[in-house]
Sequence to fold (115 residues):
Amino acid sequence: QVQLVESGGGLVQPGGSLRLSCAASGLIISRYTMAWYRQVPGKQREVVAKIIPDMNTNYAASVEGRFTISRDSAKSVVYLQMNSLEPADTAVYYCNAASTVGLFWGQGTQVTVSA
Fold:
């Protein structure tokens, strides 16, 4: 079965960096649109970054230039490098895999940006 397992979250000071990882099993990530979403209590889950099968990427305006999504197909891992973190980036971050054959979510990892 498909599993997406996020890791790398934690507490970081404003201006700091974190790298999130999403380890995927049961699917071939290069055949899916892989994405990172985030959610804060009381708000809708929002897309942060996507990488599509041909390696094109797109980002939410709020993270453009600070976050970078990438994938290592050999390791079946998707990354989200987050730099210049701001308190507004505090959220639970979720990994997502989407294709015509299915939609899958990880369990989420908490990122807290605070002094």
Summary: The radius of gyration is 13 Å. The chain has no helices and eleven strands. The chain has a mean pLDDT of 97.
